[in-house]
Amino acid sequence: MRVENCVQFGGPWLALERIKKIGLDDFLHRLPANQTDIRWPSIALILVVFRLCKPSSELRIAEHFYHDTALAQLLGVPATKVYHTRLYRAIDQLLPHKEKLELFVKHRLTELFELEYDLLLYDVASTYFEGQAKANTKAKYGYSCDKRSDCKQVCIALVVSRCGMPIGYEVFDGKRRDSTAVEEIVTTMESRYGKSNPVWGMLSQANIKFLKDGVRRYIIGTPQSMLKQFERQLLEESWDHVREGVEVKLCPSPDGDEETFILCRSGDRLGKEEAIFARFESRINEGLNKIQASCEQQKQSAVKIAERGGGLPPFN
Predict the structure, then answer these.
(1) Which residue range is the domain that position 66 belongs to?
(2) How far is CA 10 from CA 71, 72, 198, in A?
(3) Over the stretch 190-202, which tens digit does the pLDDT of each residue have?
(4) Residue 216: how many CA atoms within 13 Å on its side-chain side?
């Protein structure tokens, strides 16, 4: 007795069942596609399954992973029909339907998990390219989060909900400034999902005017130097307990406008900062002790030379 053609079944099967539960397979197959032997929505499902089970490059999926799973039987797509160029083309064919896909996923997740979108967090990251990237019109030189200013890059803006669920993303050219990207991403999300008056977070001071003009709510970090203006409130005891080790206090703006400042103090944060200062202090003391020991050694050497009649050399 021997075992032949042993393939992985459990992970791909479970991934497909979750995909069917959401209805993503039906959504993809309703999208327009050429009537070929293998339609691109089926290839897109392969990419989703591997993103869930074993994230990897399209080349590695085609050359190794697909052959080792039961997806050929589960999806009816023979291994000979799955190659890297076909996987790449499926991504290109899915991209024009990006907005429809994001709307579908957002609505289905809201129905299944009752997600709330009262707080939307926004941030921008960059990813760079090795080479000239001449075929990519968005690849440009700009401020690099990866410290690779020598490479062209693109900027990716991501919006997530309070629990971290992605709501949408946009790709900007590599030299796009964060302050200008915010206006576009906010208006894009509002046009796509409606202006449900969420609180926008993780923004910069440069975008406050845009948000105020649109009567939008926001929460941003302020410079630590502004704490001097709330010295009295910091010393008061009327703090609201949020969770273990975290307390907050709402304070009106010292400038008299409609803004509200949220003061926050955390025992864990205090402990962390005290530990950081203690390490710095320890390093400084260690350095000073080494300098002092070196000076004592030089002084003793000078005294010995003087005792032997060589005269006392100048010592600083």
Answers:
(1) 10-98
(2) 10, 14, 40
(3) 888 887 778 887 6
(4) 27
